[in-house]
Design goal:
With about 350 residues, the protein is an alpha/beta fold. It has 15 helices and eleven strands. The longest helix is centred in the middle third of the chain and has 19 residues, at about 215-235. The radius of gyration is 22 Å and the shape is globular.
């Protein structure tokens, strides 16, 4: 296709001369997108619901990596639009943005000042209330590359800088089979935020890719096992995961609606299979909205989902219906809406529980 444009070429065009269209689904778009992009999912464009788009401006189309958007741009050209595919897509733009970014000082300052009450105070409260960190601990801070674990890493760095007792940290990144784009984003974010990561590789994604029944559960168990094993090898006695308050609530609802049982995430859990090891969740009291606010305030961009099962469907595919956790997130948002009709909510809950 001739009508393609690079991130560098796009930045040289006056903003008023083009419209940037992100064709990923709404959920993926909400997790991160290019500045000034408008979200029109691929299916809407292909169903000819784009009649209102101007033909006197250049239309630049992007998806996650610039693969699926190429076809959409071609269809727009056939309909008479001056359309271009953004080479590399959202991830290409993101890597370009991170190339020379040094944001650690600004991020650390925001934790100490603007987000001290909403985030750092709740982090330290969870540590104190649930006795998550003790003198002499060596903690593997497990980083997946998303907003939660990257924030947790910075919070631990801040805690250590002001701690009254000694403990050690290892910032552990397990690569279960990331795409090169995801791996690069994680490494560049860590460099920009001054997080000294230790990366080790596994083939978990390949191992579970062809499993039809409960692949996510099996993948999660395998990832947890590898993290425990590597952390213990490095001399750690604890692994820290970035689950927050909303994760806890969502897990309870998922168990009730889909499993017919009441279960939750504990802030502290001793391992049955790895003697002397514990799992801790120091972000247990932090709300996800505050994490998103911190992310957006610092203009940070993280990977969305690294899983091979969802890496495409939550970013480019118009047929994605979302995970069970996404369904629960939407239900909670509906329940928080004061104008919601309860009949509609009851129907949604009933449908989930069948």
């Amino acid at each position: 296709m001739d009508n393609e444009i690079t991130v560098e070429e796009l930045s040289a065009i006056p903003e008023e001369n083009y419209i940037l269209i992100d064709i990923r689904d709404e959920y993926a778009f909400s997790l991160g997108h290019i500045d000034r992009a408008v979200n029109i999912p691929q299916k809407e464009l292909e169903d000819k619901r784009h009649a209102g788009l101007p033909k006197d401006k250049r239309l630049v189309v992007c998806c996650k990596s610039g693969v699926i958007s190429r076809e959409t741009a071609e269809l727009l050209c056939e309909s008479g639009y001056d359309a271009y595919n953004l080479i590399g897509g959202y991830y290409g733009w993101l890597q370009n943005k991170l190339e020379n970014s040094q944001i650690a000082e600004r991020v650390e300052s925001s934790i100490r000042k603007k987000f001290h009450k909403a985030i750092f105070s709740k982090f330290t409260k969870a540590i104190n209330v649930y006795q998550l960190v003790n003198c002499g601990d060596k903690i593997a801070v497990c980083i997946s590359g998303g907003k939660d674990s990257m924030l947790m890493a910075k919070l631990f760095q801040e805690l250590k800088a002001h701690s009254k007792f000694p403990f050690e940290l290892v910032f552990l990144v397990m690569d279960p089979g990331y795409s090169p784009e995801n791996r690069a984003v994680i490494e560049k974010n860590a460099l920009a935020m001054s997080i000294p990561i230790t990366v080790f590789e596994t083939n978990i994604f390949d191992s579970v890719y062809n499993i039809d029944k409960n692949p996510c559960y099996i993948c999660a168990r395998m990832r947890r096992g590898y993290l425990y094993s590597k952390a213990k090898e490095l001399g750690c006695n604890k692994i820290a995961l970035g689950h927050h308050f909303d994760d806890v609530i969502e897990t309870i609802l998922m168990g009730m609606l889909y499993g017919g049982q009441v279960q939750t995430m504990m802030p502290r859990l001793r391992s049955d299979n790895f003697k002397g090891m514990e799992l801790i969740r120091p972000m247990y009291l932090i709300r996800e909205d505050d994490i998103k606010h911190w992310r957006d305030y610092n203009e940070l961009h993280f990977i969305q989902c690294a899983c091979k099962f969802t890496d495409t469907c939550t970013t480019c595919s118009p047929t994605n219906t979302g995970s069970k956790r996404q369904e629960i997130k939407k239900l909670i948002a509906q329940l928080k809406n004061p104008t919601l009709k309860w009949k509609k909510t009851y129907s949604a809950v009933l449908k989930m529980s069948i």
